[in-house]
């Protein structure tokens, strides 16, 4: 293997890791946030980081300035800066696939000295011109994006997030699942003459997408549709396969765009149709501003770097296995799902770039729901459960609706949650408080144990001035670079996804068995389930 990470030791064999471990033993593991705030009135200022469009309050995290220094030393010793620069230059940092990783080149402005700038600008201009034609075409009222994973989640997340910027009169639909319960209700509500299908697939071979595209084409023809050229478009690197499928309107991209990093490419066509060319360019510009920050800001003030290092601190030293993301903006409802793919498909790896098994945790489980809904569901566990889950709150100062009273309540809830996680409530406080309402027959101390909160639970609050194409672009790029940072420290390849292959291969072996019933060579569980699905409860193939 060649490249900037080729010669480095495993992350846990570095001197910086040993130093961090010493710090963890001496101070890190016993840091108490309430005491830290009491000791240092400037803690909010010290741990506030301003990046393009995103302000991060890191002060409610289990860190002090020494922790950050040790983490930054670790990043340096692990070669983060060299690795980042190699990625930005277009070196093949995706070593297992022998590919460059250049989603940053997709959002560089025209004429920038970034790799492939002319090709990128050419496809972008063509894609945006097409999006504008669709927007102006009053006959087209419904746009159905058929794609899965990175060919679905980005657009599915961004389109509702930018609802305030969307053209009215165009309905965007997203079909991803090979489960027919996904496409069936969508088709039920459509008029073939007024519908555009976008088949989005980097490879144009993904089973789910190809199957749904075939259903859509058959439905279109059945409805009397003839003009496939006008009603189907494809976004793909495999233009030949799209043509074979019968699609002539195609927007391409390149193998150096990873699926989960592809919303900036032609895969963003549904976004461009929803919000228009200027807003799509603003989304790219916001991401580019964050790219510059990641490339140029000193590590100590570099927001994606600091967030990625916090992930390492929590995962490998505190042992926190998950992170919850709570966007206090309904438009970001799909952000946790988007981040699940971005983070867990990127960093859910168990060997480093040289194939050495990692004896430590990598990607945390990422999950969440918009606030305030989550508060009335799983926040109970965050406050009083046995696991500590760092929470990431995202708040937007200015709403795009006129209901200021609702918005103030939303923001107050957001601040109250991070405050409650940190402050907690002692048993003595709970006991003092419960006296008048103590349940009959329960000793006050027992009831107080139920009503107390441990506190000292960490959180980060990210603030945006407003949710705009520019700020959303910056926010998403921040997450991408954060994933790069922790992946780089762990020394893993954040850009392949071999873990999805085995299931795909076994699925193609199982598929014909639904018709034949042949269970030879199968384990008893799979054979038993297959038999029940064929004969008792399920449809035959
Ligand atoms: O699930 C694996 C995966 O390759 C993802 O990485 C990708 O985003 C998704 O499938 C869809 O792939 P394609 O765009 O080639 O259809």
Task: Please tell me about this protein's structure.
By secondary structure, this protein is α/β, with parallel strands linked by helices. The protein has helices spanning 15-26, 33-39, 43-46, 65-77, 80-89, 103-106, 117-136, 153-161, 180-188, 207-222, 228-231, 239-245, 269-275, 277-296, 303-318, 335-347, 379-384, 404-423, 427-434, 444-451, 469-490, 501-516, 524-535; strands at residues 48-51, 54-57, 142-146, 171-175, 195-200, 232-236, 249-252, 322-328, 365-367, 391-398, 459-466. It has a six-stranded mixed beta sheet with strand order 1-2-11-10-8-9, with helices on both faces. Helix 19 (427-434) crosses helix 20. Residues 537-541 have low confidence and may be disordered. Residues 148-151, 201-203, 206, 209, 259-260, 345, 497, 500 line the site of 6-O-phosphono-beta-D-fructofuranose.
Salient structural properties:
11% strand, 5-stranded parallel sheet, disordered C terminus, 541 residues, alpha/beta, binds 6-O-phosphono-beta-D-fructofuranose, 11 strands
Concise overview:
The protein is α/β, with parallel strands linked by helices and 541 residues long. It has helices at 15-26, 33-39, 43-46, 65-77, 80-89, 103-106, 117-136, 153-161, 180-188, 207-222, 228-231, 239-245, 269-275, 277-296, 303-318, 335-347, 379-384, 404-423, 427-434, 444-451, 469-490, 501-516, 524-535, and strands at residues 48-51, 54-57, 142-146, 171-175, 195-200, 232-236, 249-252, 322-328, 365-367, 391-398, 459-466.
């Amino acid at each position: 293997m060649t490249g900037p990470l080729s010669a480095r030791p495993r992350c846990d064999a570095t001197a910086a890791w040993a130093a961090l471990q010493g710090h963890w033993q001496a101070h890190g593991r016993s840091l108490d946030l309430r005491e830290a705030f009491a000791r240092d009135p400037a803690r909010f200022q010290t741990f506030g980081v301003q990046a393009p469009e995103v302000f991060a309050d890191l002060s409610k995290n289990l860190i002090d300035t020494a922790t950050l220094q040790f983490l930054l030393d670790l990043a340096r010793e692990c070669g983060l800066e060299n690795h980042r620069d190699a990625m930005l230059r277009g070196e093949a940092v995706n070593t297992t696939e022998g590919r460059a990783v250049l989603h940053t080149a997709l959002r560089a402005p025209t004429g920038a000295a970034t790799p492939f700038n002319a090709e990128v600008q050419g496809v972008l201009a063509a894609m945006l011109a097409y999006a504008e034609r669709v927007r102006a075409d009053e006959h087209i009222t419904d746009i159905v994006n058929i794609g899965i994973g990175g060919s679905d989640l980005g657009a599915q997340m961004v389109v509702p997030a930018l609802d305030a910027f969307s053209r009215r009169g165009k309905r965007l639909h997203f079909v991803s699942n090979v489960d027919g319960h996904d496409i069936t209700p969508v088709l039920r509500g459509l008029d073939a003459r007024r519908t555009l299908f976008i088949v989005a697939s980097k490879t144009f071979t993904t089973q789910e997408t190809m199957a749904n595209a075939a259903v859509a084409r058959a439905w279109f023809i059945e409805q009397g549709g003839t003009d496939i050229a006008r009603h189907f478009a494809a976004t793909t690197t495999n233009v030949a396969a799209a043509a074979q499928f019968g699609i002539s309107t195609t927007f391409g991209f390149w193998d150096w765009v990873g699926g989960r990093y592809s919303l900036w490419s032609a895969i963003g066509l549904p976004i461009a149709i929803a919000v228009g060319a200027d807003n799509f360019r603003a989304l790219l510009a916001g991401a580019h501003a964050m790219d510059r920050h990641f490339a140029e800001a000193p590590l100590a003030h570099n927001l994606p770097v600091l967030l990625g290092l916090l992930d390492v601190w929590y995962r490998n030293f505190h042992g926190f296995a998950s992170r919850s993301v709570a966007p206090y903006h309904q438009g970001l409802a799909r952000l946790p799902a988007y981040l699940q793919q971005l983070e867990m498909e990127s960093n859910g790896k168990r060997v480093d770039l040289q194939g050495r098994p990692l004896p430590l945790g990598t990607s945390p489980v990422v999950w969440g729901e918009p606030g305030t809904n989550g508060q009335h569901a799983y926040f109970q566990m965050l406050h009083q459960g046995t696991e500590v889950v760092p929470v990431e709150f995202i708040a937007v100062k200015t709403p795009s609706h006129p209901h200021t009273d609702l918005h103030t309540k939303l923001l107050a809830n957001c601040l109250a949650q991070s405050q409650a996680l940190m402050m907690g409530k002692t048993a003595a406080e709970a006991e003092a408080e419960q006296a008048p309402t103590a349940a009959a027959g329960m000793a006050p101390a027992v009831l107080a144990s139920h009503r107390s909160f441990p506190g000292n639970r960490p959180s980060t609050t990210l603030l945006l001035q407003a949710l705009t194409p520019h700020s959303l672009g910056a926010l998403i790029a921040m997450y991408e670079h954060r994933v790069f940072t922790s992946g780089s420290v762990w020394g893993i390849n954040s850009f392949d996804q071999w873990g999805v292959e085995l299931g795909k291969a076994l699925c193609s072996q199982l598929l014909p068995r639904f018709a034949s019933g042949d269970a030879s060579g199968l384990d008893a569980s799979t054979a038993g389930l297959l038999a029940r699905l064929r004969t008792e409860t399920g449809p035959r193939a």
